[in-house]
Amino acid sequence: MSPMNVETNRLFTDINKKYEEWHKATYYVKNLKAPQIKPPLDPTPEGLEKEIWVKASLLADGLRFDDSALEGICDVYREQSRWLFDWNISEHRYYLPEELLLPMDSVVQVRENSDSRWMCTVEDGAMVLKRDGKFVIECRHIPRPKYYSMEASPGIIMRRIAPKRGQDCLVLNYAPFCMYWTTDDGCQFCNIVPNMRWTKDDLQVTKRSFDQILKTTKAAFDEGCLKHILLTGGYLSKHKKKTGEEIDREDKMILDIIHAQQEALKRDDIPVNVIRTAPEDKDLKSIEEHKKKGAYSVAYNLEVWDPTLFKKYCPGKDKVQGRDHWLRALEVAAEVYGPGRVSTHFVTGFIEPEESLLEGIEWCSERGIGSIPLVWSPVKGTKYDGFRAPQAEWFVEMVKKIADIRLKHGVDAFEPAALPNDCYLCAMPSLIADELRLRRVKRELEEKKK
Ligand code: SF4
Predict the structure, then answer these.
(1) Which helix (DSSP H) or strand (DSSP E) does residue 57 occupy?
(2) Total domains, the chain
């Protein structure tokens, strides 16, 4: 275990222990009302390799659901909250599972696609995934936590304030509207703003109060169904008051939420990762300030590495912060937060050629910055609706190359509070956590043989 992981385990021992107890009591007890909640199998290299391919296929191609596989959703099994984007492909049903679990615990984001070759159905009491009508693998549902139905305020259930992501992560979208869209400069692959319209304030409320956040965080952690937190959202521009004073709304929103969560957990150190746009202040002093006020780790998502493509496909980020400033912010954050707590995400399979993507991974890894390749989905609300992502095999090969570069520079999986998409229990839209887990399992087996 790296020194940094030891430190985190020490900081959050009580939270982790509670989660382990909750997991055992939930997954290992036979529940006739929720027959698709089952414990995982022990991981093997062959099993994980298969799961990585299945996950890549399901993310790239989407899947269909037979009604038998949707029974119990919103009741004993967890429903989709579309807490940031709507990742489903084409027309889809309103209530779907948020994710599916594969036998060895790989977690797959559900992207329903009515044209997919994949089908999820229940046969002889087991939930299975079939491709072109042939059995491929079993799968499982994730239990719906009790706090989902509790009220954060009269008439507002807690799922609408902060839902769960994967098996162990609380997620809160601090800004469902992204202000790059006000000048038509949103990232070209993104549907955050249409998603907000489609979900009609029902799956997620747009504005949450301090008290609602405090109560939801407390209830979720009291239940024990979580280990760490992810805050994310769209870009919020600065606001100039009549007095001339400038308010950084994104900063304020994030710090207010962290404060509410600190109050909820009654501690200053909380396991929270903040995914946000790069801070705009020229000297980047705000990064230090955020760390002091309780951000445990940060990600500033570059999305695209190549400068020309970045300008074209992330025009808001290019015009407001600029690529050079964005890179500098990542470097400063890596110095301020120390190793293993800073990361950036790339949208893979979208537009970037392999060479420039790998150049970006190299740049990050040389600086100890974690890089996360997200599996792109051609979603509604973008001009790529109706396009298709590359084949699963492309994503499988790409993630191996990315893991090779990360490991060459000693950038193995960060622990969950530092980088949720390195956590195989909750990293539903990416394969890197699974690939790094596979490498670890192989290393451990080699060690045993010695
Ligand atoms: S910054 Fe880009 S990816 Fe993020 S919400 Fe805004 S438009 Fe979407």
Answers:
(1) helix 45-61
(2) 1
